[in-house]
Each structure stands twice: as C-alpha cells, then as structure tokens.
Specification:
mainly beta, Thiol Ester Dehydrase, Chain A, 7 strands, 13% helix, globular
Length: 181
C-alpha cells in the first residue's frame, strides 16, 4: 500500500449522507445472517464511513456464544468493520455487481469490551491507503467499533477487489470427478 495516494489528494471530498438497508443491499453482496451493517450514517468518498449494526438477541451466533451469557464474537465485529469499509470502497466501483471485496489481512485487532444484545455498534472506518491499477483495487483501512462512547474493538483491515466468478466452481482447478487436482 505504500504506492497509494492519499484519498484527500484525489479531490474526493464529496460527502454523502446516510444509506438505509435497501441502499446497502445494492452495494454489498452479503445477506442474512452475515450482513452485519444496518445503516450508514456518514460517508465521505474514499476517506471515511460511519455505519451501525443493531445487535439483537435474535442473532444466530448468540445460540452458542455463549448460552446464558450472549457475547458477539470478536471476529464478527472485525467483519462488521470490514463490511462498512467495503460499502465505502464499493461505492467507487461502477461494475460492482461482478466484484466482491475480500480480506487480505487483519492487523492490530483488539477487543476491549463485550458486545451484547441490545447494543448498537457504531463502526467508524478510515481509508489509510488506496491503490487502483488496471485489473486490481486494494485498500487498507483502520476501523473502530463503539457502543455509546466506549470503544469496544479496533482493527486494521486490508482488502482487495476480485471478480466474483473467481473461485466459484469454474472448473479450472477441479478434475473431471469434481475433486481438486
């Protein structure tokens, strides 16, 4: 990511208001039970996004994490940070219907407080690096999750935009019997 230019130097200071769930569904490929953002409160192109996840007792992960003491898994908080960042970055991609943003790295993840049913998770994500060359878009983002004024988690996530057909049973890596070569 060292070759990337700062988003601020690209003249992208456009700020957009929020996005509701219908807008989010048009941008992200995720669906229940793994769609982990409910609303976008603030979006500044190629720079920053603030999104929320309303945490309810009906989340499927609470059945086993943990019976009698429901706590949202930290890895899902990091996934929510990444989805917020993905929503920010995918708004910049014209042909996003054929693309998906995937993790390429997670650094400095810290979990400070448990997240429980009834909490509203506020996800704040800033772009730290952005690189776009023909055929490839990659980004590094710093994210933090809050419940009220308390920081509950943080992580630096790296991601890359890939064709959604990549890795989907295209037959390139499978033998005639469907087994891997």
């Amino acid at each position: 990511m060292t070759e990337s230019t700062s988003p601020a130097t690209e003249g992208s200071s456009e700020s957009k208001g929020g996005l509701d769930i219908h807008d989010i569904l048009k941008i992200l490929p995720h669906r229940y039970p793994l769609l982990l953002i409910d609303r976008v409160l603030e979006l500044k192109r190629k720079e920053r996004i603030v999104a929320i996840k309303n945490v309810t007792i009906n989340e499927p992960f609470f059945v086993g994490h943990f019976p009698g003491l429901p706590i949202m898994p930290g890895v899902l908080i990091v996934e929510a940070i990444a989805q917020a960042g993905g929503a920010l970055l995918l708004t910049e991609v014209e042909n996003r219907a054929d693309k998906v943003m995937v993790f390429t790295g997670i650094e400095r993840a810290k979990f400070r407080r448990p997240v429980s049913p009834g909490d509203q998770l506020r996800l704040e994500v800033e772009v730290k690096g952005w690189r776009a060359v023909p055929g490839m878009v990659a980004a590094k983002m710093q994210g933090a999750a809050y419940v009220g004024s308390k920081r509950v988690a943080e992580a630096t996530v790296s991601c890359q935009l890939i064709d959604s057909a990549r890795g989907r049973g295209s037959g390139q890596n499978a033998g005639d019997d469907g087994t891997s070569k």
